[in-house]
Amino acid sequence: MKKVLTIAGSDCSGGAGIQADLKTFSAHGVYGMSVITAITAQNTQGVFDVRDLDEAIIKAQIDAIFTDIQVDAVKIGMVSQPSTIHIIASQIGKYHPVNIVLDPVMISKSGYSLLKPEAKKSLIEELIPRASVITPNVPEAEEIIRTVTSKPIAIKTVEDMEKAAQELYKLGAKNVLLKGGHMSGEAVDVLYDGKDITRFYSERIDTKNTHGTGCTLSSAIASNLALGYSIKEAVNRAKRYITIAIEHALDIGKGVGPTHHFYELYKKGGLEDGDIL
Ligand SMILES: Nc1ncnc2c1ncn2[C@@H]1O[C@H](COP(=O)(O)OP(=O)(O)O)[C@@H](O)[C@H]1O
Ligand SMILES: Cc1ncc(COP(=O)(O)O)c(N)n1
After folding, report:
1. I need a labelling partner for 176 at 20 to 30 A (CA). Which of 19, 75, 187, 239 fits?
2. How far is CA 162 from CA 2, 60, 121, in A?
């Protein structure tokens, strides 16, 4: 069985973060493991409190996994602060996992800052260059480009997304997937691999329940890379998975409900049994 690790924050309400990642791994038939960077108190209505774990326990969790178990892919989500980023970067340098999907989580759907402003530079300099693929949403892409170039940027069209993906590629990740969840019209994601631009389309589903979409997509990509798919096929399959997971999103809680994960949905996306185990 392929083994996939998420390094991310905990969402006690189960919609995003570590919890969404582990559910996604299970639905893909891969073995999920987690290194927790921070504990958040959040639900479908907002984020109420955060405790960042210290670097010693983050380091110890990563050592415990890599000294014992072969890891086929790593997904990195909420990394909060510079010390968390330094220790993750240094541990990646030590263990060299093969597939690294970095979701540069900055602000929750409810508007809470999950990455401290002073950590932006560390994320860009220390983690992005180590990633096999980064998966920013549109506001994150704008923020990263603004931080690097000190110039204002507004991504308004798919063509703007393509230009931004090429700009982000210069930061050293092997691939850039710019997600179009925050645009209007069809939900188009753009992949740039240094050579080709590929667009991934889906209909835009009319729902308020999109808590954890970014976490789900990046974990699905990590699962598919672990299963041996090329980056384009991994993104293609992940896009199909997230579309079904949003279509079946749950109206849980009073606010933005979570995506839904289960094996039957995976099969419904045309992803057959034989493909996943
Ligand atoms: N309403 C929607 N209908 C269909 N796909 C969506 C919708 N909202 C987001 N997506 C897709 O979900 C994935 C996550 O995108 P996005 O919501 O932009 O990420 P984030 O959670 O990081 O803000 C992308 O593949 C995006 O195209
Ligand atoms: C611990 C944690 N990590 C990430 C997100 C982003 O979630 P979303 O995918 O909805 O933007 C979150 N709300 N909480």
Report:
1. 19
2. 32, 39, 23
Q: How far apart are CA 55 and CA 37, in angstroms?
A: 9
Catalytic status, residue 213: yes
Q: Is 213 in the pocket of ligand 2 (CB under 6 A)?
A: yes
| Tally of structural domains, the chain | 1
The predicted-structure confidence for 14-43, as pLDDT tens digits, reads as follows 999 999 999 999 999 999 999 999 999 999
In the 8-state DSSP scheme, what is residue 119? Answer: G
DSSP-derived secondary structure for 141-178: HHHHHHHHH-S-----SHHHHHHHHHHHHTTS-S-EEE
CATH code of the domain covering residue 22: 3.40.1190.20
**Whose structure tokens read 């199909």?**
240
CA-CA distance, 124 to 118, in Å (whole number)?
11
Cα(214) to ligand 1 centroid in Å equals 6
pLDDT digits 0-9 by tens, 131-181: 999 999 999 999 999 999 999 899 999 999 999 999 999 999 999 999 999
- Asked if residues 47 and 40 have their Cβ atoms less than 8 Å apart, the reply is yes
Ligand 2 proximity of 258 Cβ (cutoff 6 Å) = no
- Band the pLDDT of 272: cuts 50, 70, 90: low
Residue 40 Cβ < 6 Å to ligand 2: yes
Which residues contact ligand 1 via a Cβ below 6 A? 137, 179-182, 187, 189, 202, 204-205, 210, 213-214, 217, 239, 242-243, 246
113: containing domain: 3-276
Whole-angstrom distance, CA of residue 12 vs CA of residue 127: 26
Task: Provide the token pair at 241.
Answer: 């998975």
